[in-house]
Amino acid sequence: MAPRVKVVSHGETTDLRIVRVEIDNFRGIKRLDWQPRPGINCLIGSGDSGKTTILDAIELVFASRNGVMFDDADFYDVDPKKNPISITVTLADIPSEFLRNDRYGNYTRGWHGETQTLEDEPDEARGFQPALSVRLTVDQTLEAEWGIFNRRLEKEGKRLPSLSYNDRQEVMPSRLGPYADHHLGWGRLSVLNKITEDAKGSRALLAEAGRIARAEFSKESKALFAEVIKQAKCAAQALGVAVTDDLQAMLDIQAVGLSGRGISLHEKNLPLRQLGLGSSRLFVAALQDQARVNASIALIDEVEHGLEPHRIARVLRQLKAPKKDGSIKAQVFLTTHSPVVLCDLAVSQLHVVRRDKITGDVTALSAEPQFKSLDCQAVSRTTPEAFLVPTVLVCEGKTEVGLMRGLDHYWSDTGKSPFATLGIVAVSGGGVDRAPMVAGYFRSLGYRVGLLLDTDREPDDKTILAELKTAGVSIFRWKDKHATEDHLFRDLPTPAVKKLLKSMISFEAEEQSFIDRFNRRLPERKIKSVGELEQLLDDAKVREVPGGLAKVRDKLDKDGKPDPRERGVFKDIAASEWGGEQLVGPNLNTMTGDFPQIIGKIRTWADQ
Fold first, then answer.
1. Of the candidates 252, 179, 251, the residue with the CA atom closest to the CA atom of residue 218
2. What average pLDDT is seen over the chain?
3. Are 423 and 46 in contact (CB under 8 A)?
4. pTM of the model as a whole
């Protein structure tokens, strides 16, 4: 069998891997051209974007011909005449045995890893390493054809071969779907069969198992079938058929159909296929990882299916672990709908799948930020669900996130559709300078994006908001150089401001600490108690002070500890969430000014 690991010119050990996937007219995909990466490729995307279809397409290219059947529903727009299926998968770092001229060496193409380009001729001097493209086509006859593909040789009219059965088995990906029973036995295409040394080894083991079964059966068969054999012997002699005393019942292995499917893993007498769903999937995932020591490619649909969060983390940790020599394990293609999975993966391992509803074209965009200065890993750790919805509302900071969550609760309680139903998640952008960059990042991945910013300070990048607006980001900003905290204290009715003030003071170590901070901001008042302050809340100038104290950034004292005199009081999601639900929501219809109008625009945008 050909080795599946080879040493390339730059001295790094690399494994057989998929470098390009091209799909035309397969199910819901009109056209896809995707360059996956080594290691883990996790496909995410809301709705029926085509994630599982991509895994199916990869599997079919290397599938056994006898086991695949197509019907009209497999064609795009259910139209086989107009939309014939074509699926092409290109492999790089191919086994050296494949490069021999009597194998596939004359049909190889060239792949450039840095530029992600494919040519019809390998040219290692220019960085184009040998690659092999395998194509599956299906026309209106529903007959599938598999073969090596090279555009130049096709134009020259040369007949291109197909992968041999043994070579197909060598490169075929293993598939772990929702049900893992198949892989817990030695059936055809199971992962246990892959771990077995080779096909001849499997047949030898099966033959020996048949001999053992035959020998064990013969020990008990004489007593079990004695009466039947006696009657059969008498009947034969009556008709003149000569039979001896050696007539006996034996096991005919071929007749009973002993095959790999009939042999499975057991724990004591219990077949492992009777394990719980999660346990069986975890067991098979471990077997597939063992098989990947030989550089096989794995396909895992809905990796979280049947697994608790700690088991998901364990599976992903095993899949991400490098080989003993430190190199990356070959490739794993995942799909997921779980935030838990995203928390354990790097954004560079995520690919956002989008399907154009008009053209049917599908893209799989890498979630790795184009600008290294933008670290979006924090978003996938703190708010991973943002990557799984169609719409993201990027808020300047925690105060705005809490406000939106609180308003969402209020709207939901009053009969409006919650953000979850609308497919909207609010995320913290991390400040006025970073939030626009996060909004641009999500927009570049095809998300519908809104951006909520204060106006007390402008972003350092003076052009970024105009660029975002041109790119289709909906921007919402308060008026008159105000922050969210300013509007809460200025625009809410007095009874609501009193409640807000009490909530704010609860964050202080003691009430006098807040009074001291207030008097430093407005020394002419010299208030002595919170009760006295509450009597002055109709004064607009007095209301400005708590708003300023609520939004001040934390400052450290000379010992590096938070200075109680200069501590942000309202920079907390839970506190502002309470304010949004209990104070802002119920008073939206009675407040005047720009604040409730902007909130109304956000709600209108959410409902679109």
1. 251
2. 84
3. yes
4. 0.82
